[in-house]
Amino acid sequence: MDRNCLELTNEDLKEIFKEREKNSHKGTYGYVGIIGGCMEYTGAVKLANMSSTALRAGCGVIRVIVPQSIETSIAPYLLEQTIYPIENDEEQKMKFNKEEIDKALDKLKAVAIGMGWGKGRDNEKILEYILQTKEIPCVIDADGLNTLSQMNFNILKETKCKVILTPHLKEFERISKIPMEEIKKDSIEIAKSFAKKYQVILLLKGSTTIVSDGITTYLVKRGCPGMATAGSGDVLSGVLVGMLGYHEADAKIVAAGSYLAGMAGELAQEKYTDISMKASDTIEMIPEAIKKIRNLKEY
C-alpha cells in the first residue's frame, strides 16, 4: 500500500479522543452550526438527531440554523441545542440575507450545511457567500452537495473555508461528472485526484470509506449493514462538525470522525440487530465507541 494511504486503528485515535482537562468549559470545545431544513422536507427529528450527534461527538454548543417556516416544528425536539431562524421566502425556503447569515454564523468554529435543505432558489447564494467570506471548516452534505453540483467548482479553489465534502458514490458521480462505474474501478486515486484538484477534504462513503486531502489518504473500514438506514449520513456529518468544534480540520480528523461513527454503528447493530437498528441508535452508542478507543480495545 502507498505510504500516503493509511488505515486507521484505535491506537491512531486515542490522542484525538483523550480525556479533557478539568479546567475547561463549553467554549473550550467550540460553537458549531448546522444549516438545513425546509417546509417541504422539515426533517425536524433528523436535524435534532444530527445536532445531538454533534454534542455527543464533543462540541461545546450546537446552533441549529433553519428557515423561520420550520422553527416551531423543530423547536420541541431541541433540548441542549440552540436554534437560530433565518428569514424564508414565499416558498418557505431559506432566504439569502447577508446580515442574518453573519449573525447565525457568528463565533462558530465550524458549520455543516445541506441536510433537508431542499431546492431553495437562494441556496446557491447562501453557499457561495459562506464559502467566499467565512474562514471556518464547512462540511457539505446532502442538499448542500446538490447545490454545489450546480455551481462553478472553481469557487472551491478560492474559498476561505476549509471544505469537507461527504458524498456517497451517486453524489460523487454528480459532483465529479465521472461515471459511477469508472469511480468504482479506481476509487482511491480518483478521490485523491479530486481532493487535490479542488483543494478539499473528500470523504467518499462506502464499505471502505476513503478520506483524502489530495496528499494523504485514509481508509476507514468501519460500519455495518445496519447503518443502511435513513439518517446515517446525517449522523456522520453531525460527528464531523462536532469534532471540528475542538480540532483543526484535516484529513486525519475527518477520517477519525468516520471511524467513530462506524464503530458506534457496529455497536448499535450488536445491540439492536442489522434489521432493527436505526440511525439514532448509532448516536446512542457513540460514548461506548469512545470508551473502546480510549482503552485501545480493538473491536
Question: Which key features would you list for this structure?
Answer:
299 residues, alpha/beta, UDP-N-acetylmuramoyl-L-alanine:D-glutamate ligase, ten-stranded mixed beta sheet, 10 strands, 43% helix, globular
List the helices and strands and how they pair.
Blueprint: E1 5-7, H1 10-13, E2 31-36, H2 44-56, E3 61-67, H3 71-74, E4 82-86, H4 98-104, E5 108-115, H5 123-133, E6 137-140, H6 143-148, H7 155-158, E7 162-165, H8 169-176, H9 180-185, H10 187-198, E8 201-204, E9 209-212, E10 217-220, H11 232-243, H12 251-276, H13 279-284, H14 286-294
Parallel strand pairs: 1-10, 2-3, 2-5, 3-4, 5-6, 6-7, 7-8
Antiparallel strand pairs: 8-9, 9-10
Helix pairs in contact: 2-11, 11-12, 12-14
